[in-house]
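User: Here's a structure from my thesis project, written as structure tokens. My advisor, Dr. K., wants to see whether a designed sequence matches the one we expressed. Can you design one independently, without my sequence as a hint?
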């Protein structure tokens, strides 16, 4: 589906290039008129969902075409897409995708453990991949997205399952703590302790604390902040770096800055600010992260993925093509739960969305570069990510009009929880110490895992936003 659309779009532009047709073909939106924003968002949403074949015969429910080399998208990106769709519904009221979203979030939960670790996707299963699905489930709870039938896993319990399985993976032998990037030991990237894995964990912990009012989650959110900044991944100027390796005790910091990291982080930190009823240390962290984020990622008021969206070339991969949307969605939530940020955030969300819209055609096909004023025909790296980002930008602009902060269990949230969700069986827990008797058996398992992994290594070990380290 993506290939066909990509072809159609470039054919259209070739035609348009000879005259004014391309100009007339732009998506028209008046950002001062919420009904205009809603109709534009609906066109973009429909365009996005054309990339999703999950409910067609013979396709897997819940995933975008992939993972590589079968198709462009890793497993996690569909989780991010359904999160985007939930926000779209929350802000616009359009419930067209309720059923498809519920089916996807429930199927990919991975029965019977229901902790977003389905065996199908083990070869690319990072803590961050799991958490992007967990964050979508958490959002479903926070927005009172319709609950699944009682015999199916519930939104809050799914987020708790992700939290519980990740707490079990926190380990202090290297780097004084933190989560590794990958979950299975055999995956390339297992020795990388990176920011995205840890800030996703912090994000879910903070939101669980606020939703359930259970301090245990808050302690973990704070511990993760302390670790992340202690190890130097967040520096004193609030730059947010990518990560380091356990072989170097995480001192070999890869200082590349991708927006997904501060986006997920500032969301979690703002939730902690709200949960603590405005505690000064969390206020300072929100303010610092916001200041640095605006300066770094919104030069001229329009979002740029600076590490790979270069003036003269485009080096962003499929994953990175979806990052702008996470930033816009995160900032909208920050504006709700940390009201002191509203003036700064709404100003930049508006100017950046204006840029996003200027990259869209009238059929809702949007580009990746938002600061050019036209559709950039960047179709090589997973157009679904660009569609998600444009949709996120448009819907997030309605945040103040919607004026509904994330629900909690005390303020109308209806999702059912299970504090022990995901505890059994934790198939990817760190291996227990090996006794002599176990060794032979473990060796066989390892050989089998290795044999099946090596076949996939060509694409699995290519770090997805680790850059060239
Ligand atoms: C796992 O793969 C099988 C075979 O393609 C498919 O039927 C099933 O729906 C998949 N499960 C998940 C959770 O993706
Ligand atoms: C590893 O780094 C942590 C701080 O992040 C430090 O506390 C610990 O002593 C270091 N360990 C080694 C072996 O250098
Ligand atoms: C949510 O509140 C209800 C009562 O209003 C209570 O029965 C339930 O245990 C609470 N759930 C959580 C996760 O705290
Ligand atoms: C961030 O803080 C610096 C130093 O105080 C200031 O010069 C800059 O204008 C701030 N940026 C934004 C976007 O507020
Ligand atoms: C927490 O969020 C709610 C909902 O948006 C908001 O009304 C409240 O003012 C926030 N609390 C603080 C301390 O900012
Ligand atoms: C709070 O969360 C922790 C961590 O999951 C759990 O062990 C504990 O039972 C929860 N407490 C309550 C009162 O639900």
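Assistant: Designed independently from the structure alone:
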């Amino acid at each position: 589906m993506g290939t066909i659309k990509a072809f159609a779009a470039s054919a259209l532009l070739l035609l348009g290039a000879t005259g004014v047709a391309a100009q007339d073909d732009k998506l028209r939106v008046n950002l001062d008129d919420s009904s205009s924003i809603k109709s534009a968002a609906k066109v973009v949403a429909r365009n996005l969902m054309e990339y999703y074949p999950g409910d067609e015969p013979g396709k897997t429910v819940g995933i975008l075409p992939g993972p590589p080399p079968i198709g462009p998208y890793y497993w996690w990106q569909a989780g991010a897409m359904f999160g985007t769709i939930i926000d779209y519904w929350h802000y616009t009221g359009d419930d067209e995708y309720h059923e498809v979203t519920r089916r996807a979030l429930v199927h990919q939960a991975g029965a019977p453990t229901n902790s977003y670790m389905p065996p199908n996707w083990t070869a690319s299963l990072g803590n961050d991949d799991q958490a992007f699905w967990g964050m979508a489930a958490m959002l479903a709870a926070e927005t009172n997205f319709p609950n699944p039938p009682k015999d199916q896993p519930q939104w809050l319990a799914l987020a708790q399952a992700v939290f519980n399985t990740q707490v079990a993976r926190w380990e202090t032998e290297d780097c004084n703590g933190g989560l590794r990037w990958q979950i299975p030991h055999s995956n390339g990237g297992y020795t990388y302790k990176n920011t995205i894995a840890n800030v996703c964990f912090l994000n879910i912990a903070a939101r669980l604390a606020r939703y359930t009012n259970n301090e245990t989650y808050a302690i973990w959110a704070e511990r993760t902040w302390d670790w992340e900044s202690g190890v130097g991944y967040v520096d004193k100027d609030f730059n947010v770096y990518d990560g380091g390796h356990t072989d170097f005790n995480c001192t070999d910091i890869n200082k590349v800055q991708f927006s997904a990291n501060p986006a997920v982080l500032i969301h979690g930190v703002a939730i902690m600010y709200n949960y603590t009823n405005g505690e000064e240390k969390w206020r300072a962290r929100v303010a610092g992260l916001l200041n640095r984020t605006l300066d770094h990622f919104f030069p001229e008021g329009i979002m740029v993925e600076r590490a790979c969206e270069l003036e003269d070339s485009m080096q962003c991969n499929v994953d990175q093509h979806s990052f702008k949307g996470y930033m816009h969605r995160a900032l909208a939530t920050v504006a709700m739960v940390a009201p002191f940020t509203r003036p700064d955030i709404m100003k930049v969300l508006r100017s950046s969305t204006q840029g996003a819209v200027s990259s869209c055609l009238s059929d809702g096909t949007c580009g990746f570069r938002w600061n050019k004023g036209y559709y950039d025909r960047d179709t090589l790296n997973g157009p679904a990510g660009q569609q998600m980002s444009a949709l996120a930008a448009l819907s997030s602009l309605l945040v103040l009009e919607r004026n509904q902060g994330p629900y909690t269990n005390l303020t109308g949230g209806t999702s059912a929880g299970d504090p022990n969700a995901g505890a059994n069986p934790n198939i990817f827990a760190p291996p227990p110490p090996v006794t002599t008797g176990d060794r032979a058996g473990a060796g066989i398992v390892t050989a089998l895992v290795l044999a099946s992994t090596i076949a996939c290594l060509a694409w699995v070990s290519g770090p997805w936003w680790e850059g060239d380290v």
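When you compare it with your expressed construct, this may help: Residues 335 and 343 are 8 Å apart (CA to CA).
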